[in-house]
Design a protein that fits this description.
Distance between the termini: 87 Å
Strand order of the largest sheet: 10-9-20-17-12-13
Shape: globular
Number of domains: 4
Keywords: ANK repeat, ATP-binding, Cell membrane, Cell projection, Coiled coil, Cytoplasm, Kinase, Lipid metabolism, Membrane, Nucleotide-binding, Nucleus, Repeat, Transferase
Structural class: alpha+beta
GO molecular function, one term: ATP-dependent diacylglycerol kinase activity
InterPro entries: Ankyrin_rpt, Ankyrin_rpt-contain_sf, ATP-NAD_kinase_N, DGK, DGKI-like_dom, Diacylglycerol_kin_accessory, Diacylglycerol_kinase_cat_dom, NAD/diacylglycerol_kinase_sf
Largest sheet: 6 strands, antiparallel
Helix content: 25-40%
Radius of gyration: 30 Å
CATH architecture of the largest domain: Sandwich
Protein name: Diacylglycerol kinase
Number of helices: 23
Oligomer: single chain
Number of strands: 25
CATH class of the largest domain: Mainly Beta
ANK repeats: 593-616, 629-661
CATH topology of the largest domain: Tumour Suppressor Smad4
Strand content: 15-25%
């Protein structure tokens, strides 16, 4: 036992990124003198020597530690900054995990003084890397403090995305959000990531002397929220929506304590601004000059309602407003390190198509911009909005920050897979797991494997990434649909999945010792299939209705076939028809009161069955009413305040204007149930349906 205590700790698999305890030295706090004059003198001496000793008083806090590193080419010490407010409760959980795997002295909570203290403490550590756990705003905060400290060389910054948009994280291959990837893998990715450059841009604002006094606004400001941007700077419609949301949240913070409410308000604000045309005259009140070229006439000719100065390819939670390289004709593909900024304009039409793969109007690629405004206009800098007074804004390159880009590589963690040569071809069995099974059994790998449903077998080259496997799995599903049409016996059909894959399925990593983990779809091209399997692949389908979760409600037929296989063998055609009847006919069935399966599923609140029925029933079936009350399924969901189910039904096309026998719409039912958030959401969607109907009638 004593021999083990005296053994030198190797610091484990991640020794290269862990700060050894021997580097951190505690500084004894000097005793105060009784004589005030000597005390003052000592205090001044301490302040002068603080930079040498590393122990000082700043902002009333005693800094009792200093760091004396022992340089090594093999080490890449990591400094972790976590914003616990990002990503719901994810930040608070993650900070505990990092403290468990690393030295707690190298993990910092940003709500307790910000990043400056940690950066100053570790300023002289060679090969230092930084991991920012939070949204893009958290990353910008750390980069700004690094600018102030003028560290040379500047430590590269990696990102663990915990925010909502995470466009910078997407650009650098860190994905659109943290799911549940093991901390050990994250540390390996940070250690092995490539160092790239990120352009950062100055925003210099001065008052416009040519602006007329009547064009000024009482709510305007004379300066932007921040004077540098990493992602984008915009003005017009999108900034107006963001500003409205921001002002409402500042005035009534208690009303914005849930993501659901935030999204509903944001959608409502955007819809109202769209109807009022708040930014339709933007082009008349600005002048844009890019590298000496005046674009004002072009902006006015196109009647643009939003102007975007974009530094990175991603914008608005993953969209690509500049478009794809194959589409570029007069412009170069966009880069985040080329010293150029992309100028993009949007009409309401191009803004609407952005979420479905569209892009804006490409105006220019330049190194300097002079933007002149002649009235107060909403603007936003990396998501921070304001209404800026008539101004002249100069945009030019500030510097380039070092960032860590997640690289496609063989993982450095010791797995059995790494010890074997990569085969030329792999035959991999694909198994599908429902969300209900994953949430209940993800810590019990054996039971979770038993709960999976076989989907089929794919053959891939041994060096394939998961993106390639996804294409084959989607194609496999199409092949299985054709095979099932030829199969006449239910005994064979039980080994195949009867429900189509949803668009939201993702891969599961089952190679870690403790549990299964989800892999972000945006990072599939960075993972080789051999890193997570060589024999069996497991995928998570959140919309899969498992046999255990279907048909358990009283009075509801089973949606998954449970016939005796022997009966279908002797009567193959009967077995085939029974299967089709189970999937389709039961969905359209109504009882004596006129209730459908959808009514029953909503009443018991089973989201999986509701999704299944919506996917397999015609749209007209969503508005079937009960005989006694005239209620649709949406009426029932609104009455019981089931927000998720209301969202599913509305998005599938359920009518929001249909009234029950009492003349009430689903929105009025939600108001009666005292769920104002849900009522506001239904009202916004009801307006949208009315506009759609009017457009269709006009077209006819």
């Amino acid at each position: 036992m004593l021999q083990q205590i005296e053994e030198c700790c190797s610091l484990g698999a991640h020794a290269a990124v862990i700060i050894p305890p021997t580097w951190i030295i505690r500084v004894r706090r000097p005793q105060s003198s009784l004589k005030s004059s000597k005390k003052k003198k000592r205090t001044s001496l301490k302040c002068n020597k603080s930079s040498k000793k590393g122990a000082e008083v700043r902002n009333g806090r005693w800094k009792p530690f200093l760091v004396k590193p022992l340089p090594s080419q093999l080490m890449k010490p990591l400094l972790v900054f976590v914003n616990p407010k990002s990503g719901g409760n994810q930040g608070a959980k993650i900070i505990q995990s990092f403290m468990w795997y690393l030295n707690p002295r190298q993990v910092f909570d940003l709500t307790k003084g910000g990043p400056r203290e940690g950066l100053e403490l570790y300023a002289k550590v060679p090969n230092l890397r930084i991991l920012a756990c939070g949204g893009d705003g958290t990353v910008g905060w750390i980069l700004s403090v690094l600018d102030q400290l003028s560290l040379r060389p500047q430590p590269p910054v990696a990102i663990l995305p915990l925010g909502t948009g995470n466009d910078l994280a997407r650009t650098l291959n860190w994905g659109g959000g943290y799911t549940d990837e093991p901390i050990t893998k994250i540390l390996s990715h940070v250690e092995d990531g490539n160092i790239v450059q990120l352009d950062r841009w100055n925003l210099k604002v001065e008052s416009n002397p040519d602006a007329r006094p009547e064009e000024r606004d009482e709510h305007q400001t004379d300066k932007l929220p921040i004077d540098v941007f990493n992602n984008y700077f915009s003005l017009g419609f999108d900034a107006h929506v963001t500003l409205g949301f921001h002002e409402s949240r500042e005035a009534n913070p208690e009303k914005f304590n849930s993501r659901f409410r935030n999204k509903m308000f944001y959608a409502g604000t955007a819809f109202s601004d769209f109807l009022s045309g708040s930014s339709k005259d933007l082009a008349k009140h600005i002048r844009v000059v890019c590298d000496g070229t005046d674009l004002t006439a072009k902006v006015q000719e196109m009647k643009l309602q939003c102007l975007l100065f974009l530094n990175i390819p991603r914008y608005c939670a993953g969209t690509t407003p500049w478009g794809h390289p194959s589409e570029h004709q007069d412009f170069e593909p966009q880069r985040h390190d080329d010293g150029c900024i992309e100028v993009i304009g949007f009409t309401m039409t191009s803004l609407a198509t952005l979420q479905v793969g569209g892009h804006g109007e490409r105006l220019h690629q330049c190194k300097e911009v002079t933007l002149t405004t002649f009235k107060s206009i909403p603007m936003q800098v990396d998501g921070e909005p304001c209404k800026l007074a008539p101004s002249i804004i100069h945009i030019n390159l500030r510097n380039q920050a070092n960032m860590v880009q997640k690289a496609k590589r063989r993982i450095s963690m010791p797995h059995l897979n790494d010890q074997q040569p990569v085969p030329e071809k792999l035959q991999i069995r694909v198994n599908r797991i429902s969300m209900a099974a994953y949430e209940a059994l993800h810590y019990d790998k054996d039971q979770l494997k038993e709960a999976s449903t076989p989907l089929g077998v794919i053959t891939v080259p041994g060096d394939s990434d998961l993106e390639t496997c996804r294409l084959l799995i989607d194609r496999l599903q199409d092949d299985l649909d054709q095979v099932q049409q030829r199969i006449t016996g239910l005994s064979h059909m039980k080994c195949l999945s009867s429900q189509k894959l949803s668009m939201k399925w993702c891969f599961l990593d089952c190679t870690t010792a403790d549990r299964f983990y989800r892999i972000d779809r945006a990072q599939e091209h960075l993972n080789y299939v051999t890193e997570i399997s060589q024999e069996e692949l497991y995928i998570l389908d959140p919309e899969l209705v498992s046999k255990e979760t279907v048909g358990t409600s009283p009075g509801m037929p089973d949606l998954v076939d449970s016939e005796d296989p022997s009966s279908s063998t002797s009567h193959p055609e009967k077995g085939k028809n029974t299967f089709r009847f189970t999937e389709v006919s039961y969905i359209l069935l109504q009882d004596a009161a006129g209730c459908t399966l959808l009514h029953h599923a909503v009443q018991v609140g089973n989201k999986d069955i509701v999704k299944y029925l919506i996917d397999h029933a015609p749209t007209s079936h969503l508005d079937v009413t009960e005989k006694q009350t005239g209620e649709t399924a949406l009426h029932k969901a609104a009455t019981s305040c089931q927000r998720s189910i209301c969202h599913f039904l509305v998005e599938a096309g359920a009518s929001l204007m249909k009234t029950d026998l009492q003349g009430e719409t689903p929105k009025q039912r939600a108001e009666k149930a005292s769920d104002q958030e849900l009522a506001e959401y239904l009202e916004n969607r009801q307006h949208y349906q009315m506009i759609q109907r009017e457009d269709q009638e006009t077209a006819v």
